[in-house]
Amino acid sequence: MTSPLPPYVAAHTPTGLLVGGEWRPATGGGTFPVADPATTDVLFEVADATPEDGLAALDAAHRAFPAWREVPPRTRSDVLRAVFDAMVARAEDLAALVTAEGGKPLAESRAEVQYAAEFVRWYSEQAVRLDGLTRRAPAGTHHQLVLRRPVGPALLITPWNFPIAMITRKVAPALAAGCSVVIKPAQLTPLTTAYFAEIVRAELDARDLPAGIVNVLPTSSSRALTEPVIADPRLRKLSFTGSTEVGRTLLRQAADGVLRTSMELGGNAPFLVFEDADLEAAVEGAVAAKMRNAGQTCVAANRFLVQESVAPEFADRLTAAFDRLVMGPGTAPDVAVGPLIEKAAVDRVEELVTAAADDGARVRTGGERPGRRGYFYPPTVLDRVPEDARAVREEIFGPVAPVVTFGDETDALRLANGTEYGLVAYAYTRDVGRVMRLAEGVEAGMLGINRGMVSDASAPFGGVKSSGIGREGGEAGIEEYLEPVYVAL
């Protein structure tokens, strides 16, 4: 096996299961490989958790929960603050892992680590602000006391595309609320999760807090592992980030136990450019919204809906901007676009581009798989794209920007809302009245106005329609791990 990781990071990255406060092999000793998508070289063999391991981890979380929920909020806050400080101190180690197993450029990995740490800091502050309510009943017959208590052990299932940020966005509010957790990281990117979990384990152990508050189960058989855990009545919360298809399956499984669920699912984000937009700013925002992690994000701009009068100029400018992007391994200098995560991802992106060209779209740049090692696909701009092309209707999850034209604002809203998804939308316009109409009319949980990034640890993140249930981040994020209890006095 080869490794592009610094020796210290490689030596201190756990490759086992974290169950009950201890790293150990999987039952039966099974492992699976984790590869670098830029080279296809294997980085590590990681323990392959079994259903038995899943139930053992849930048992550990269940046993730890009563003691953890009784830990003073200030102590929980201090633990999270110490984890934040440790993440900042080890930011380069974490970024190296993100790039090694996920492929994104180091600059993006460093930004992800900073973003991830902000969730830990934010919820360290929220842990001591879990306010309740007391008031006199309207009838005047009694007083109402509303308390909020942790829901219980939680199963957290995270995706591969942001292997540290998606973990902290779930773990931090869960721990702040007083919940214990079982984490099932993505098969493709479990290493960053393991490194982060060891930071948390060490901080808990240093304070003699219960073992089993945080458990980690990498596996190559996700459904086989999670089904018995979800069916176990000791589990009280399920949080998932991933595809809508898998989310629907998990919701059906969670229904039998009437679990609290939060789902951050697929997207098909429209990027609206109106004729009064600052086109230079719009192109800059388009590159940011489309090309982060080579387009492999749920909030990536998927459809570029541009008013007819400015569409040719916008397409020209976007093409020139894409041509300036350097593609290569994430560790190489000046690289802005890394590899896709696996061969199947490249195959699918290539298929969507070919289908769009067959439907009459014009390939302005890119559009051909490079003859090089690794899972690369070049930044690609398509214009003259029919609105019913697959690249418009489906989530691309790759570095492809299809440009579709619209006539007026009504037409723009029709196109923007013409999908089952509603996670995020972006719009560029100088018209304040239009901004308010878009805020009311666009069917999405988040809207970026004249900016290509919306995510912030202090703001609610989530969608509508088939893009999910619940919110992560902000004050809303911790509510997902709390339940109100009403006492009539």
Automatic annotation (TrEMBL):
Positions annotated as active site in the UniProt record: E264
Organism domain of life: Bacteria
PROSITE patterns noted in UniProt: ALDEHYDE_DEHYDR_GLU
Transmembrane intervals: none
A GO biological-process term: gamma-aminobutyric acid catabolic process
Record protein name field: NAD-dependent succinate-semialdehyde dehydrogenase
Pfam families, A to Z: Aldedh (PF00171)
Keyword Transcription: no
GO molecular function terms noted in the UniProt entry: succinate-semialdehyde dehydrogenase (NAD+) activity
Organism: Cellulomonas pakistanensis
Family to which this protein belongs: Belongs to the aldehyde dehydrogenase family.
